[in-house]
Amino acid sequence: MQLISAKEFLNTNKNILIDARSPNEYKKAHLKKALNFFALNNEEHKLVGTKYATNKFNAKLLGASFICKNTSIHLKKIQNIANPHKDEIYIYCARGGQRSGAIGHILSEIGFKVYKCEGGFKELRNEMISYLNSYQNPNFVSLAGNTACGKTRLLKLLDNKIDLEKLAHHFGSTFGSRGFLQPSQQQFDINLINELKALKDAKVFIEAESKNIGTITLFNNFYEQMNSGIKVFCEASLDIRVQNCVNDYQNISSEFFYFCLERLKPYLGNALVYELSTAYNNKDLKSVAKILLINYYDKVYKKPKEFDLLLNLDDLEKAKDILNNL
Question: d(Cα 192, Cα 217) in Å, to the nearest integer?
Fold first, then answer.
């Protein structure tokens, strides 16, 4: 088994990748294509950690017995996906210690060529932070514009793009989560880095976002980079924007709608909140969208004074052609 740095670990094309942490740790954030062959499950991890505080020897003894049991189960699965004569296995745990070391040692003794990440996920996280803090790209084309004018729809038609809202599972507005859970900050950063590394050396289209997309925060350097290139302001007719809103939000629950409406109450006032509630109860979603766009979003998100291109999105194919010819 060979120990390699977190930087080398991240930059290597990995044949088979194993995350040896507990399922809960894996669920919070993990590297792309990592398989969760855990050394300790959630309950075992908690139990060993608690015992370690009072009796290190007994904790290690208990942990070893759990690891042997779990690894015997994992080996049957590994046998079906890996060939020791040609497949290399990369493995990490939380800090690059005993969990990845134990499983890695067994796999190495069987005959696999195993590479263990020095410092584990903690050091991998530090490398990711360093990457985002030093990332440079002068080719960004950022798409700003009126709420629901179709920026995300346009982005889907373009090549060589970063869809931050898709990565964050959030539309970037009060109703943006649509009631769904967002990924952890760590998982978002992992997914973003994978997208950045896959970009071509050409114009990179991205939707202009605030630094916070729901619970996700963009790194300062990356945020500055994405706003350093060509700035496009997008607009569309009110009818199209209303229909876009209805299409995007028609399936949200009434509980989520009223939760968000309550948050907007200080900005809308009682009269508009009543009007919105009445329209929503009558299933008049177009009126709901129109009231919110005119009375809230267009007042809060105003047209910037400086931009490089004004782009109408009533015809998305035409808008795509214009951007591709920049």
Answer: 12
Burial of residue 86, with CB atoms counted within 10 A of its CB: 0-12 exposed, 13-18 middle, 19 or more buried = exposed
- The label of the residue with tokens 């263990």 reads 116
Q: What angle do CA 228, 159, 145 make, to 5 degrees?
A: 50
Q: Residue 244 carries which side chain, given as an amino acid letter?
A: N
Inter-residue contact 19 to 32 (CB < 8 Å): no
Question: For residues 10 and 28, is the Cβ–Cβ distance under 8 A?
Answer: no
Q: Render pLDDT for 140-157 as a digit per residue (tens, 0 to 9).
A: 999 999 999 999 999 999
3-state secondary structure of 162: strand
Q: Which residue's entry shows tokens 């299933």?
A: 283
Exposure b/e, 106-136, CB count within 10 A at least 16 = b: bbbeeebbbbbbbbbbebbbebbeebbeebe
Token pair of 86, please? Answer: 């040609």
Strands (E), the chain: 2-4, 16-19, 88-92, 113-117, 140-145, 161-162, 204-207, 212-213, 216-217, 230-235, 309-312
Asked which of 37-41, 126-130, 168-172 is least confident by mean pLDDT, the reply is: 168-172
**pLDDT at residue 39 in the model:** 97
The token pair at 20 is 């040896």
What is the strand order of the sheet 16-19 is part of?
2-4, 113-117, 88-92, 16-19
d(CA 82, CA 37) in angstroms, rounded, equals: 13
Cα–Cα distance for residue pair 191/33, rounded to 1 Å:
11
Question: DSSP characters for 180-243?
Answer: PPPPPHHHHHHHHHHHHHT--SS-EEEE---SEETTEE--HHHHHHHTSSEEEEEE--HHHHHH
What are the Cα distances from residue 53, in Å, to 40, 66, 80, 90? 17, 18, 38, 30
Q: Report pTM.
A: 0.92
- Per-residue pLDDT tens over the stretch 178-206: 878 999 999 999 999 999 999 999 999 99
